[in-house]
Amino acid sequence: MNDVKIETIKDIEGFLKTTERLDFRKNNQEEAYKWINKILIKFEYLGKLKKSEKGVVRKYIIRMTGYSKAQVTRLIKQYIRTGYIKTRKQKKHKFNKIYTDEDIKLLAYTDKLHNYPNGNALKNIVIRMYKTLYKRINVNYQKTKPGVERNIGERRKPMPEGKPGYLRVDTVRQGDRDGEKGVYHINAIDEVTQFEFIGSCPYISERYLKLLLEKLLKLYPFTIIEFHSDNGSEFINKIVCDLLNKMLINLTKSRARKTNDNALVEGKNGSIIRKWLGCGFISKEYAGNLNYFYSYFNEYLNFHRPCGFSTEIRNEKGKVKKLYKKEDYMTPYEKFRSLDNCQQYLKKGITLIMLDKIAMRYSDNQLAVLIQEQLVNLTKEALPDYFLSLKQV
């Protein structure tokens, strides 16, 4: 900026009467600060200037730079205090980097291994892995018949009152192809702990179901008190009833027009079976392969996969609202261990030490890798048409 002709206070006053605001500071703040320094020194702002003359210099600086009166006052105070005006380097707050790129990749890898659970479940998996030290330590198909005319089983909602051993059970068919029915999954889940065991059978007949149900019920580490299903004839029949009577297990069935009576297991059908195996057709001949896969998968579900456990809040009108908090995510086994005096519910011959060894046998990721490998092998054989579309680790 060329202002060499401005030599006196009168020159400044004449300039102010004839010149509009220039505002050159927008182009270069550092240049503006140097120019202000130069003007204050040139006119001896700290020395001989009177108060009125200082006001003229201030107006001149405002006119030339475009700065506000308050900003010019601040800059002049800085000049009076330090003898110069300079730009301040802005110090931006920076957060310390805690997680490396490798940490982020490992988190994404873990998320993929466990088939992309929700955020709270994934967080729980990572916390568990951090806190825990792991050690290596031919019958014809029979359609489901409505059981409304059968007097087998009691129609009521299970009321476990915080005790394990109250199962919700349902069947899931794995697709159709050219009129052929796919394999069937039997899903059984405990209402309180969410202990879950799944098995497969080629047909949904009473004969096959009895063998599979007997096997699944024996897998539970705690005593089974009640067996609840919908009204389908695959469970509401004399053969299943005799089996449960033999094992001293009560049989209950869903009430009419009460769709939530068996909602827990129906939700798990979607979030577990459908999510991991999809809806594609799997032939009946692969029931054995599926049960081999489930021998690993059931351990993963119960000892390594966190579930959400709701907290119920009742309002003034008596309506119950279920909330899921971060601290309410834990594995079914952790939930069982959290019960008061949980040993009292264990079957004879089962101890917590035995269950702890199973829980410590693999880390969450180690077993998840094994599950993914087994799933790939199963998919290659049973779902060749869908293999390329599945997520692979």
Overall pLDDT score: 83
The beta-strand count equals: 12
Radius of gyration: 38 Å
Unreliable residue stretches: 133-141, 385-393
State the assembly state of the protein chains: single chain
- Name given to the CATH homologous superfamily of the largest domain: Ribonuclease H-like superfamily/Ribonuclease H
List the total number of helices: 13
CATH topological fold name of the largest domain: Nucleotidyltransferase, domain 5
Please indicate the percent range of residues in DSSP E strands (runs of 2 or more). Answer: 5-15%
Helix content: 40-55%
Along the chain, the helix and strand elements come as: HHHHHHEEEEEEHEHEHHEEEEHHH
CATH architecture name of the largest domain: 2-Layer Sandwich
The CATH class assignment of the largest domain is Alpha Beta
Overall shape: it is elongated
Tally of separate domains = 2
Termini, distance in Å?
66 Å
Explain this structure to me?
It is a single chain. It contains 13 helices and twelve strands. The chain has helices at 9-18, 29-42, 51-65, 69-82, 101-113, 119-131, 206-219, 238-246, 263-277, 287-303, 332-338, 352-360, 364-382; strands spanning 154-155, 166-173, 176-177, 180-181, 184-190, 196-201, 226-229, 250-253, 307-308, 311-314, 320-323, 329-330. The strands form four sheets. The chain has a six-stranded mixed beta sheet with strand order 1-8-7-2-5-6, sandwiched between helices. A two-stranded antiparallel sheet has the order 3-4. A hairpin with a 2-residue loop joins strand 3 (176-177) and strand 4. Helix 1 packs across helix 3 and helix 10 runs antiparallel to helix 13. The two termini are 66 Å apart.
